[in-house]
Amino acid sequence: MPTSTRSSKARRERGSVEPTGSADSAGRVLRQFRLVFNAVKTHFQQVERRAGVGGTQVWALSIIRQRPGIGVSELARALDVRQPTASNIVRLLVDQGHAAMRKDDADRRAVQLYVLAAGARVLRRAPGPFAGVLPQALAKMQPDALRRLEQDLSALLGLLDTDDRAAGVPLAQM
């Protein structure tokens, strides 16, 4: 018996008959997700191998270099993460000697962030894009295509049991 007939028969026996072609489409989309995840993973592995630090740290350093004196809250917004996550990233960068924190002259409770020489060396070694390949690719998409993708992913997320807190975890840390 041909494979497709066996598969259809097995689905009917389990009581979950899919519309014709649905399994093929789901399989193609699953393979596309695998390609996306592999591209992201490969990029972050290259970053860590060449720069010696993780992709999130490289991205944070690049933002601090672009905006010397940035605060932790601003950095969190730029990275699209929660403030405690940004604080942990900053603490790691400071402990490694890649960045420095200085008290803000106007508000002594706030800190300003600066890249140190060791952090600049990390950025010179790191392959781009610093934000990662997925944010760069999304930024290049046409607005209509990006809106459709957002709607379709929202529908997919509605079918999954997701933890919304995961949306604030950088991809490099997953």
Description:
The protein contains 8 helices and 2 strands. The protein has a two-stranded antiparallel ribbon with strand order 1-2. The chain has a domain at 26-131: Winged helix-like DNA-binding domain superfamily/Winged helix DNA-binding domain (Arc Repressor Mutant, subunit A, Orthogonal Bundle), CATH 1.10.10. It has helices at 3-14, 22-51, 55-66, 72-79, 83-95, 117-125, 133-140, 143-159; strands at residues 99-103, 111-115. A hairpin with a 7-residue loop joins strand 1 and strand 2 (111-115). Helices cover 63% and strands 6% of the residues. With 174 residues, it is mostly helical. Helix 3 (55-66) crosses helix 5 and helix 3 crosses helix 6 (117-125).
CATH superfamily of one domain: Winged helix-like DNA-binding domain superfamily/Winged helix DNA-binding domain
CATH-defined topology of one domain: Arc Repressor Mutant, subunit A
Q: Please report the distance between the alpha carbons of the first and last residues.
A: 43 Å
- Rg, rounded, reads 22 Å
Sheet-strand content, in percent, reads 5-15%
How would you sum up the major sheet? 2 strands, antiparallel
Kindly report the spatial arrangement of strands forming the biggest sheet: 1-2
**CATH architecture designation of one domain:** Orthogonal Bundle
* Quaternary structure classification: single chain
Total count of helical runs of at least 4 residues? 8
Total DSSP E strands = 2
The CATH class designation of one domain is Mainly Alpha
